[in-house]
Each structure stands twice: as C-alpha cells, then as structure tokens.
Amino acid sequence: MIKTNDGQTLKSTEPEDIVRELNDMSFSPEPTPGKFMTESAGRILAFFGTKVRHDTAENYVADLFTYGLLTTEEGPVKADA
C-alpha cells in the first residue's frame, strides 16, 4: 500500500499509474502527467526546498519516496503453516 504524506492511499503500483492517480487526486489536475510532474516538482521545490526529478515517471516517483512524500506500509506478516 502506498500513502501520500497527507495520508491518502493510492491504489496504483506502477510509476506511470501513480503519477496519473496523484494528478487525478490533485486540487487542480493538469492536462497531462508530464505537466503534472513539472508543476508539482516546482511546488515541492518552493514549499520544501527539495528538488524532485520530473523527466520520467520512474524518477519522479522514486524521488517522492526518497523524500518521504510517498511511503509504503507493509501488511501483517503471515506465519508459515
């Protein structure tokens, strides 16, 4: 499970899908995923002072994880039968 830093849960697991889902959840969605990454990377830099790569969905999502803007939660560990 992937969560945003404001507690929202994402259903997607692939970088391109994560970007689309984040854009759809945005207060002001952009017309394309590329535009969304560029604009949100600018806001992240302005608000947090953190430079997020926005050249590919993979780099963008990786940086969001690196800087704690996206996190994962592991489910319960199942004991072996």
Task: Give a quick set of tags describing it.
globular, three-stranded antiparallel sheet, 3 helices, mainly alpha, 81 residues, disordered C terminus
Short description:
With 81 residues, this protein is mainly alpha-helical. It is built from three helices and three strands.
Mind describing the biggest β-sheet? 3 strands, antiparallel
Amino- and carboxy-terminal Cα gap: 25 Å
Number of helices: 3
Query: Which parts are unreliable, with pLDDT below 50 for 5 consecutive residues or more?
Result: 75-81
The average pLDDT score comes to 90
> Helicity range of the residues?
40-55%
Q: What value does the Rg take, in angstroms?
A: 14 Å
Description:
The protein is mostly helical. The chain has one domain. The protein has three helices and three strands, in the order E-E-H-H-H-E. The chain has helices spanning 15-25, 33-48, 57-66; strands at residues 2-4, 9-10, 70-72. Strands 2-1-3 form a three-stranded antiparallel β-sheet. Helix 1 packs across helix 3 (57-66). The radius of gyration is 14 Å and the shape is globular. Mean pLDDT is 90; it is low at 75-81.
